[in-house]
């Protein structure tokens, strides 16, 4: 039973906090988000003409239901426009963070998360950095990005969770 507790404790130490995983996910989905945005814009331009009727928020006989085809188009167009707006915001936030970084830091994020080179030692070699320094810089960049995305505040970060405190 004692060994099982030790193994469980060791596994818990290796699991990164939620804000850390969310930040990595934002970087990893960046290129897919850009592609999705382009597809949505193309769909919007071809499927919905610009003169489509708008949704009316004024009460009528059939509140909450759409009785004609034009109303259905308007609802679909509205949903698509909301998704486009949200994707543009997500992309712009990542762009702003990347543009605020130096060339080495930006290259690290792009190679590791956006181009999906999963081998840390390879990415460290590409940016000309020792592996240990690479890990430290990578974690610092994730912490910075998590704060800028609003996932965590500095005082909420447990540096023991990240393994930054020496034993």
Summarize the structure.
The chain is an all-alpha fold. It has helices at residues 2-14, 18-28, 30-47, 69-100, 103-114, 120-126, 131-149.
Provide structural commentary:
- It is a single chain.
- α6 packs across α7.
- 11% of the residues are buried.
- The chain has 167 residues and is mostly helical.
- It is built from seven helices and no strands.
- The protein is elongated.
- It has one domain.
- The longest helix has 32 residues, at 69-100.
Please estimate the helix content. 55-70%
Mean pLDDT: 82
**Class derived from helix and strand content:** mainly alpha
Order of helices and strands: HHHHHHH
Shape: elongated
User: How many helical stretches?
Assistant: 7
Strand content: under 5%
How many strands appear in the DSSP assignment? 0
Biggest beta sheet attributes: none
Q: What separation lies between the terminal Cα atoms?
A: 25 Å
Which stretches are low in confidence, meaning pLDDT under 50 for 5 or more residues running? none
Cα radius of gyration in angstroms: 23 Å
Number of separate domains = 1
Provide the descriptors you would attach to this structure in a database record.
mainly alpha, 167 residues, single chain, 0% strand
């Amino acid at each position: 039973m004692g060994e099982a507790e030790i193994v469980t404790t060791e596994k818990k130490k290796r699991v990164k906090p939620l804000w850390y995983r969310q930040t990595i996910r934002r970087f990893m989905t960046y290129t897919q988000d850009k592609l999705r945005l382009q597809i949505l814009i193309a769909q919007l331009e071809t499927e919905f003409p610009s003169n489509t009727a708008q949704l009316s928020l004024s009460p009528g006989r059939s509140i909450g239901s759409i009785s004609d085809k034009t109303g259905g188009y308007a609802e679909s167009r509205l949903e698509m426009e909301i998704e486009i707006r949200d994707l543009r915001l997500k992309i712009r936030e990542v762009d702003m963070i990347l543009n605020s970084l130096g060339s080495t830091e930006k290259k690290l994020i792009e190679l590791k998360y956006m181009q999906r080179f999963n081998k840390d030692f390879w990415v460290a070699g590409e940016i000309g950095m020792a592996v240990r320094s690479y890990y430290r810089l990578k974690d610092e960049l994730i912490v910075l990005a998590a704060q800028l995305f609003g996932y965590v505040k500095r005082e909420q970060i447990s540096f023991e969770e990240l393994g930054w405190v020496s034993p």
